[in-house]
Amino acid sequence: MRPRPGSEKVRGQGESADAPEGARLSLLAAMADLWRLLMVSKAPWLKTRTAVALTLIVAGKALGIWAPFLLGDAVNTLARGKTPAETLALSFGALAVGWAVVRFLAAAAPQIRDAIFTPVSQAAQRRAAAETFAHALSLSLDYHQTKRTGALGRTIDRGARSIEYLLRTLVFNLAPTALELLMAAVALSRAYDWRFAAVAIGTVIVYGAGTFMISDWRIHHRRDLNNADNEAAGRSVDALLNYETVKSFGAEQRAAAHYDEALADYARAAVKANTSLVMLNVVQAAVMSVGLAVMALLAGLSAAQGRIGPGDVTTAVLIMIQIYSPLAILGFAYREIRQSIIDMEAMVDLRAQVPAVADAPDARELPEALVHGADLAFDKVSFQHSARSQGLQSVSFRAPPGSTTAIVGSSGAGKTTLVRLALRLIDPQNGAVSIDGVDLRAIRQSALRRAVALVPQDVALFNNSIRANIGFGRPEANDQEVWAAADQAELGDFIRGLPEGMETKVGERGLKLSGGERQRVGLARALIAEPRLLILDEATSALDSRTEAAIQATLRRLRGGRTTLVVAHRLSTIADADQILVLKNGLIVEQGDHAGLIEQDGEYASLWRRQTRKKA
Length: 616
Fold this sequence. Notes:
elongated, 9% strand, four-stranded antiparallel sheet, ABC transporter transmembrane region fold, alpha/beta
């Protein structure tokens, strides 16, 4: 099994993750974003929990420094032995018990702190994930077409988890570590002499410098691990989402081999990271061992000279061991901070992406309809994709309320682009698209989407029940309305014949259903939304002739209440449209009704003859 990112197999005190030199996300920027998330996290008793947690941090560190002094006093009491045996035993016992109690309280304080503060950190993590996920959904079509779903999901997941890491390391590890080191240095200096504090501080400086230098030497490993992990996740999700295609071409072994290549890259990056990590851990252990040895020698010599008692030797060594734990956390904190900042980079970059299609500051709701349907108009609209040599060129037409407008043309003529412009998934580069006389760019996207519904050629369904997929078009719809939409889409009898009826699960992207069944669910989902503008993009292409004829009859009955825009390949399905637009090379070359276009004997008539000849 591939290890989760950030869970390197070899761990030691202060292991370090790596960030690129001159990382785009600075520590200050990360802290500012972290503070904002905390303040808007809506965690219960936010200020009280934070105050109590900080108090427990200080108390726990103070008790941790006090505990060795109690044990040292106990040993000194035992060593003097000048008092009666019973008094000596009581004194030693009291100090020993006090040491045990204080040490327990010092160890319990962080656990209690975690229990109190966990709701806050989890709320902040949830807020970060929810904000980033919502922003990702708000980004434009072009962005999502260039991103791998698996890699995007992993970016959100790692970035959100980095919030919890930063809280844990900066608030609960790094700052308390500095506080404990300061307490230890002051306590040693006051209780004994400055040399004890100097040894403690010197060990900290050497340990920290070594940790930071070696960690900076490893700066690229974490990024390599993330890139390799993203690639592996992207390849696996691509293959799983397109399972049917992989299966139909017998490409299971090929897809598995590509995934294995990505895992091999991840393994190589992990080996390099872990090898350098071993070097870091060895250096840290050596520094700490030398520091302990120097402290023990200094304390022993002082005891031999009579300046301190035997128990004070124990205290000095225990203090140094006490410092060892914060030093280990210091290195770990450095790793966590560097790792979390790297993980946050991608999430911050994602949240910094500006949607190509966004609501204007003064965007407004769609005006109330004065008549049934929507008045859709294209005015000299042009749009060209970067991956196309040509696009729509100065396209103008009007689809009056309640009318049906059909769009036909060869592949690449611009039909799909026209549909995306009508949905405002993209904005025109020139000209304007309007509905009821209002430019789409002046309308809130949420209001526009409530008024427009799309049934695409390839309907993608959620891995949920048929009821949930139909009701997605209007979540507040009741069961009766869901069944009415299913019946209108010629889906009711099919659902009633299923063992689980409306609760039948459709599988990933609806793959448990046939293409025709998916299209009918998509049509029912669009109809239940009660749109003013219904867009059918080859919406009946996967249906048999009988079902298609029944749905066409249903759509004809429903046209009175909405405007319909139909993209069709089979011309027989749009012969009764109020107007037909013939697209060719991004231009409307013909426009009219079926009979008029046949009389013109142009592009449409040629397409009609080819299709009717095939049928004959």
